[in-house]
Amino acid sequence: MNLPDLKQARLRTDNLPQVLEAKNIKSDKFKGKNYFIRTYGCQMNVHDSEEIKGILENLGFSETEELEQADIVVLNTCAIRENAHDKVFGFLGRLKHLKKENPNLIICIGGCMPQESSVATLLKEKYPFVNIVFGTHNIDDLATLILAESKKQQIEVFSIEGNVYEHMDYVRDSSITAWVNIMYGCDKFCTYCIVPFTRGKQRSRKVKDILNEVQDLKNRGYKEVTLLGQNVNAYGKDLEEDYDFATLLENVAKTNIERIRFVTSHPWDFTDKMIDVIASFPNIMPYIHLPLQSGSSKILKLMGRRYTKEEYITLYNKIKERIPGVSITTDIIVGFPNETEEDFEETLDVVNTCKFDSAFTFIYSPREGTPASLIKDTIPLEVKEERLHKLNDVINSYSLSHNKEYIGKNEEVLVLGPSEKGEDKVYGYTKTMKLVNVSGAKEDIGKLINVHITDAKSFSLDGKKEIFIKN
User: Which alpha helices (H) appear in 107-194, and where do they start and end?
Assistant: First the structure.
């Protein structure tokens, strides 16, 4: 495996135009060839895939949704849970058969999984039909690896975080909403989390580059941006200039793009200044994803989360009081090592206190290389599953209750596309991130419309178009 001796300093392409030119390789060598990409994991992986698409299309490839028509297949992988690994290796079995039928098929594995040394070794030893293996730190080298057309498996995974390159070409999945990375990596090192090991230490983008990207998106007609990072609240802490996330959020709002969201927030870094900025600008959406992970202060300490149950509830109440109409969602892990029934009841107590709009819930999955993986796990799987089921029942009841409060109200909805609920319906999201299936026309896609909410379910709302709001 190639593990270059990289410097920790983040090189910027505004000072290195020759590097940018080398990264944004353009060629028609593969014109007429097709690529297929499958993405696993979080929003960061989704946005990484937009960069990968840009790289492939710069080489002449065109996207196909039919696997059998592909000349190159890229799997952009996730390492956060074991089942993500299983899905990738299962899909590789299918690709092995396709490779036998088409020996010229190029198979690439990228993303977080290859950053785990054991996975990279496994790919080398047991999956020799995979042509290219690359990590999260060297996506920008994919074009070079493809152009090499080596007959041998190429494994190019950097062991430490790479550089921050600006002005890369993206093929965005939407012409209405866009992801905007503001940082890479994470410095929190929660004991259960593999992210600092697969994505490296925190590297914040320069303010001017972020604002220029948002302004460009606005000029191109985008209605919404989501500022993206593993912990957006910590933005700027690694920069030489004195600049924090609240200030960035304020300056993004001043571009006057119509909708702004951000994910994900760590409660430890959520400041009063942030709350004031969110409350002050109508184009910053009143929706916050605030991971709890556990309601037990004992378990939170074992997780390395840096806050207690009481501190989380205090922050939650402060946000609810100071941001009108805000909706708050969360993440919760059950079955963390040493979680007792009393610890789980503490989690239920926080859920019953906060009454979250919704939550992503998971059974703890140990990740090799993390401190938590060294803690002996004595909780039977059936106990974990029982706790998850009980937790989901409580959360879903609150989700339905919150959604029913929308019935009879008019809500501004950004329409994103055709709904799966019927040919005469489109779907979109309210300011508070509620999914709405709307009896509306296809020409409403990309517009902000006024919707009268007629019905509510646990995970979505139904409505009909009222009056036109904005283009």
Answer: 117-126, 142-148
Tell me if 131 sits within 8 A of 155, measured CB to CB.
no
Place of tokens 């206190």: 353
What is the rounded CA–CA span in Å between residue 392 and residue 389?
A: 5
User: Rg (Cα) of the chain, in Å, rounded?
Assistant: 23
**293 DSSP β-pair partners:** 332
Segment 300-345, tens digit of pLDDT: 999 999 999 999 999 999 999 999 999 999 999 999 999 999 999 9
- DSSP at 205: P
**In sequence order, what E strands does 167-233 have?**
177-181, 183-184, 203-204, 224-228
Residue with tokens 């290195």: 16
Strand, coil or helix: what is 287? strand
For range 96-109, the mean pLDDT: 93
> What is the DSSP track for 344-365?
HHHHHHHHHHH--SEEEEEE--
Place of tokens 């909805």: 413
Residue from 366, 388, 41, 337 nearest 193 by CA: 366
Strand intervals (E) in 221-344? 224-228, 259-263, 287-289, 327-334
Alpha carbon distances (Å) from 331 to 42, 95, 357, 406, 430 = 13, 33, 12, 23, 21
For the whole model, what pTM was predicted?
Answer: 0.86
How far apart are the C-alpha atoms of 427 and 417, rounded to whole Å? 6
What SS3 state is found at 202? coil
